[in-house]
């Protein structure tokens, strides 16, 4: 099955993309066959005899097809400047490598240092309340002033995830968005401008999926293992009694990571999960940066007074957006675009900038209000 068209990177991409392939399985197979290239050069019969396995990944047809997909992926990553990191590379993040189900390959866009001294994952419900959104902003703002070499990790999803990313951008903290699909398309599309800002402003987009992979429902929960493993601790801001955030908490605990949860009022739907984590001693209670830093035993850096810009300069376009939002008190994205006669994709860029300047706040359901 060898071909002069295949490079060492082709074989690595193909090997890592095989069904069920993680670091543990990759190590076991390479111990037996010797190299990725040799895995694809051997016949199906030889592989089955050598490994005593029956998996479809040994099939000649399966391996032939995945090599062809790897060729396309190799062309894609080279064309778009995407970094490819294999589990044997010295640049593979050490925290992630500690997880037994870590991916054999990750694809990244951006220059964030995944080996930063202090990495915090912040996750929660897709139906975030103002309480949760404000907590994200306050926590990350306080940490940005007191914790050096800080990185915030989340999943770019609606609700708490995007609130955490936007708070990090606002406070000039590098942030990593872990995606449930390849880097050929940002999901959700409404957060595309946020993703661009993350990659351009010292952060990173990260995934273990190729552009050839079919997006499946299971990708979203599988993505959570990377969110949990990349960090020193995971903060659950808001969660119902079940959901992806609680899965992330369980994964973090299985990786021996600290888990913290923000308490909420009894009876609030999206505080039920956090309150239960705290009540069952599965998560420490967190009310702010002091709690996190004490739990992690992180020393505070010398506070740097923040130069508050009481009258931030706005462009003509930004001022027009603020005026309309202020007139309505609270307005949906589509209504705002209709009034201003501006395409939604252009309007989103302005809204992200205004959010970063703390002029407006993003509400659930693509609604906006002036702070």
Structural topology:
Blueprint (H helix, E strand, L loop, with lengths): L7 H10 L5 H11 L2 H6 L2 H8 L8 H21 L2 E4 L7 H4 L7 E6 L7 E6 L6 H17 L3 E5 L5 H11 L4 E4 L13 H9 L3 E4 L10 H12 L3 E4 L7 H11 L3 E4 L10 H8 L4 E2 L3 H8 L19 H13 L2 E2 H8 L3 H13 L3 E4 L3 E4 L1
Parallel strand pairs: 3-4, 3-7, 4-5, 5-6, 7-8, 8-9
Antiparallel strand pairs: 1-2, 2-6, 10-12, 11-12
Helix pairs in contact: 1-5, 7-8, 10-11, 14-16
Describe this structure in words.
- This protein is of the alpha/beta class and 371 residues long.
- The chain is built from 16 helices and twelve strands.
- Strands 1-2-6-5-4-3-7-8-9 form a nine-stranded mixed sheet, sandwiched between helices. It has a three-stranded antiparallel sheet with strand order 10-12-11.
- Helix 10 crosses helix 11.
- It starts with 7 loop residues before the first helix and ends with a strand.
Q: Outline of this structure?
A:
With 371 residues, this protein is of the alpha/beta class. It is 46% helix and 13% strand.
Any key phrases for this structure?
alpha/beta; single chain; 12 strands; 371 residues; three-stranded antiparallel sheet; 16 helices; nine-stranded mixed sheet
Q: Which outline best applies?
A: globular
Percent range for helical residues? 40-55%
Strand order of the largest sheet: 1-2-6-5-4-3-7-8-9
Helix count equals 16
Averaged pLDDT, please? 90
Could you describe the largest sheet, including whether it forms a barrel?
9 strands, mixed
Q: How many beta-strand segments?
A: 12
Order of helices and strands: HHHHHEHEEHEHEHEHEHEHEHHEHHEE
Structural class, please? alpha/beta
Which parts are unreliable, with pLDDT below 50 for 5 consecutive residues or more?
A: none
What is the rounded Rg?
A: 22 Å
Beta-strand percent range: 5-15%
Q: Measure the end-to-end span.
A: 61 Å
């Amino acid at each position: 099955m060898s071909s002069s068209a295949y490079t060492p990177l082709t074989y690595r991409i193909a090997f890592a993309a095989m069904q069920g392939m993680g670091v543990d399985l990759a190590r076991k197979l390479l111990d037996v066959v010797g190299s990725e290239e040799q895995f694809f050069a051997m016949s199906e019969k030889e592989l089955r005899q050598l490994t005593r396995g029956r998996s479809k990944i040994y099939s000649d047809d399966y391996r032939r097809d995945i090599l062809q997909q790897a060729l396309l992926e190799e062309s894609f990553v080279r064309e778009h400047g995407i970094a490819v990191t294999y589990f044997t590379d010295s640049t593979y993040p050490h925290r992630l490598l500690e997880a037994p189900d870590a991916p054999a390959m990750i694809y990244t866009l951006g220059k964030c240092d995944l080996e930063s001294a202090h990495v915090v994952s912040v996750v929660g419900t897709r139906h975030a309340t103002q309480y949760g959104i404000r907590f994200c902003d306050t926590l990350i703002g306080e940490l940005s002033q007191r914790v050096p070499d800080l990185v915030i990790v989340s999943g770019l999803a609606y609700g708490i995830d995007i609130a955490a990313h936007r708070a990090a951008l606002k406070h000039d903290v590098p942030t990593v968005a872990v995606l449930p699909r390849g880097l050929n398309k940002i999901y959700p599309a409404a957060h595309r401008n946020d993703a661009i800002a993350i990659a351009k402003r010292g952060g990173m987009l990260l995934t273990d999926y190729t552009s050839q992979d079919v997006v499946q429902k299971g990708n979203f929960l599988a993505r959570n293992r990377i969110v949990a493993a990349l960090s020193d601790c995971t903060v659950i801001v808001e969660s119902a009694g079940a959901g992806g955030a609680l899965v992330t908490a369980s994964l973090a605990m299985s990786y021996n990571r600290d888990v913290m949860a923000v308490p909420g009022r009894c009876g609030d739907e999206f505080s039920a999960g956090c309150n239960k984590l705290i009540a069952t001693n599965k998560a420490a209670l967190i009310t702010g940066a002091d709690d996190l830093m004490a739990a992690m035993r992180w020393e505070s850096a010398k506070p740097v007074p923040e130069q508050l810009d009481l009258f931030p300069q706005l462009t003509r376009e930004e001022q027009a957006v603020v005026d309309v939002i202020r007139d309505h008190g609270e307005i949906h994205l589509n209504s705002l675009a209709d009034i201003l006669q501006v395409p939604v994709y252009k309007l989103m860029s302005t809204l992200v900038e205004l959010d970063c300047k703390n002029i407006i706040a993003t509400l659930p359901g693509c609604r906006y209000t002036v702070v």
